[in-house]
Amino acid sequence: MSVQFDVDTVVLDIEGTTSATGFVVDVLYPYSRRRFGALLAERGDEPAVARAASQVRELLGEPDADAARIERALNDWLDEDRKATPLKTLQGIIWAEGFARGDLVSHFYGDVLPVLRAWHAAGFGLSVYSSGSVAAQRAWFASSPEGDLLALVGGLYDTENAGPKQEAESYRRITAALGVPAGRTLFLSDRPGELDAAREAGWQAVGVRRPGEPYYEQGVGDHPEVGTFDEIELSTRSTQ
Fold first, then answer.
1. 139, 149, 225, 239: which is deepest, by most CB within 10 A?
2. Residue 234 forms beta bridges with which residues?
């Protein structure tokens, strides 16, 4: 059964929503784990790497932590699946280079890309809000099995430029950046806490429940629910 929304723009979560969490955990996490040490040792003076390393020290409360300590912390956070901004920044750098080299190709569920193409063609705005860094998001959409899909998405938002995904204020920041009324914005995610925060900020929200995903058994609370993107019907005032 389909659900209908009257909106102008859609904001997409990635893990568990457009793409399999298992791919991220089983393929991308080990790829970054093997490369943290070299990145910190060889490129620690680069601004983005140095800023992330400083953020790790701040989160640890260890201002003198060396590269080896930072690497251990990053690996510990990976094991915990902690959504720490500096972890996501460094992963994004590593993944972007892996995608560019052809080491990595992103994953999308089979129902996703045809629907995103149809929504884009119909004039709906599409953006991304993921705990993965903007660099990782850009690489993800540029390196899909169907080639470069960056033209489909406009805004790219992460925990650094928007804020934590379970806080309503983060969604308000995105609203301001998009220039679209909150009530005309639809958020798609598999995590009920994120859906709650989006709704608190005035967005419409729909939970995506896919068997095998970590939050499948938990459900999506009292939000509308779909199993695939093609169960979502969009309309906008300009088409009514």
1. 139
2. 5
